[in-house]
């Protein structure tokens, strides 16, 4: 197979399909989504069987346990996949919304209309549930999509693709609205991320290695984040009980998520009172503490934190801790070592809260709340295609709105420019 | 000079300065802008003299007349430059605005805060007025900027830079908020557009050749447009007087602007009545007509339009004309040959107007108005750094808002995730 030609063909078909799905009404899109969910439920056994084929092959090939775990699809996981698609059907349709119409001195009315981006390329690891999820979000937001999942999931992904096409057909929509790459040749990715003429945005979903590789090579804009090195800063005069509760949740609720806190900054004035109970709580939960010299003087179990520790997303029960002068040094530390993802302050001081919100250069900035809230569902977006630490376009959790754009519309009555 | 080190140094200083200007209050920024305007007025003679040095050198080097014209700065142009900076001072400050605050079931309040992008790189031709204009827009929107103007304008640009720095200093702001590249070495551009770690967005201002070159090489996101192949489509049953007036203005008011109409589509049902008077008007104004066979049957002076003509931004008194079946074919033509910049329909039919607005995939879509209105000032943005035909982030005319982004803010009371 000539891979470049194959990807070009996917791109041309996606571009043509994008015109059709962009003008499809909400009823047709929701009908398709509900039909896809019903087909997934109906074919649950077949999907699990296709997945078993993938899992067996991956195990023989020696895929590591964590990846095997993400690849495996149980009957419950299939049911959750169908439910996820139905939830997307139930969300409001962002497409076509007109806002900010204002009459100008020339007589024209100028406003904005929300429209799909066009063609979205999704590149992800061997997680079959992402296939249904990403297809549903792109479809609902009026975009054509090209889905390239990890090669280990190929059988299950193709089985899901057939059900997506069945659902699209039942709503009178062409199958090319959602194209699932049918070859495992890795060269597909290289072409997809450079095909500016047919792909409007790439969303990589997967580990840091994947995203870093794509960032280095992509010519198409990406909605992505590389790292989630999130901080909690406990300010002078914070409520200590609240600080303990927030740090516990932000660090220990889940270790592998991008909105988990990886670093703790504590104002010097309360380090003596806060650090011992906090360290006891973390140690009880099995979290390793890597601290600055002041931290180590107060916490015997802490090892020394390196520069690299402060810059790390551990994704593990490890936390770096530093005692700082106060809010100025905390903000400087976060903007220097952080990843512009999500950072929180615990404070009772109004001016400190406002300053932290303004000056921390991150996609999500929080006062007196756990960083774990940085999530499309918790923010009320109803769904999430990913989280962006880029500054242009969508920033933070990205839902349906982030898969759309606003064009300008002008409503005139024959006005010409003077 | 080691150019890569020099650009890295510019980047590091810009990043540091971006933290300072991001938190500067509106008073300080406006004070700096007014001081810059005053300094420009005061030093008008010196600026004209520095410019004369540039113009003389460029003329000796054989720079072509159109470029010499854009390079030349008269005393009136200096006054206009100062006035432009004062106008930016008078605009509302977008930074810090909080919107969409909503309480979530968990108890947290989630909203968005408008913040600067960080560091903006502006790459432009030898037009000294752009130096003051771009510096003012970046400063007001809370961004640090790195300005790289065409090498022929180096003396005048350095003279303007000194006045910008004087204005910044008078407001207590560091000069590194606006850095004007001091070498004419072209290698600067190559490094600047790849320095992702220190530059958040590149805005190229200049001709198609410049933008195309940067697009091919940039690693930093760009706010740009390549072409302005704008269309007017005259629909069945349009008001013919209105159609004539709009086409005249859209095509002939100015030939060299990106929002000038380059192509005219006419519904077959009114071609016989509209084309003869329209061709007479265009011919009277010296506009060359390149048409489809049906057009040529009605307009004897029309030559044959090629595929390339339909895809061209002429920037000249030339227009391509095609008779189409109706709105469906018009939309298809525009989405195929157009540049996603600005397209207008002339119609009295409500459904056609709505369909055109929804389905034409362009940054600005207009009903019964001249494409010439696609402009930051006409849209009420108060200023314009450029026009974008990209779909992500800012689309269409880009003012202060397009130089900012929105981060999420969470206001909690100790909430943790369950």
What topology emerges from the helices and strands here?
2 copies of one chain form a homodimer.
Chain A: H1 3-23, H2 26-42, H3 44-60, H4 65-71, H5 75-90, E1 98-103, E2 109-116, E3 119-124, H6 128-140, E4 144-148, H7 154-170, E5 178-180, H8 187-192, E6 201-205, H9 208-217, E7 230-234, H10 240-252, E8 261-267, H11 268-284, E9 288-291, H12 293-298, E10 303-304, H13 307-310, E11 318-324, H14 327-337, E12 342-346, H15 350-359, E13 364-369, E14 386-388, E15 396-398, E16 404-415
Parallel strand pairs in A: 3-4, 3-6, 4-5, 7-8, 7-12, 8-11, 9-10, 9-11, 12-13
Antiparallel strand pairs in A: 1-2, 2-16, 14-15
Q: What does it look like?
A:
2 copies of one chain form a homodimer. With 418 residues, the first copy, chain A, is an alpha/beta fold. Chain A folds into 2 domains: 239 residues, Aldehyde Dehydrogenase, Chain A, domain 1 (3-Layer(aba) Sandwich), CATH 3.40.605.10; 149 residues, Aldehyde Dehydrogenase, Chain A, domain 2, CATH 3.40.309. The first copy, chain A, is built from 15 helices and 16 strands. Chain A has a 7-stranded parallel sheet. In chain A, a hairpin with a 7-residue loop joins strand 14 and strand 15. In chain A, 54% of the residues are buried. The interface between A and B is large, with 68 and 68 residues. Strand 13 of chain A pairs parallel with strand 16 of chain B, so a sheet runs across the interface.
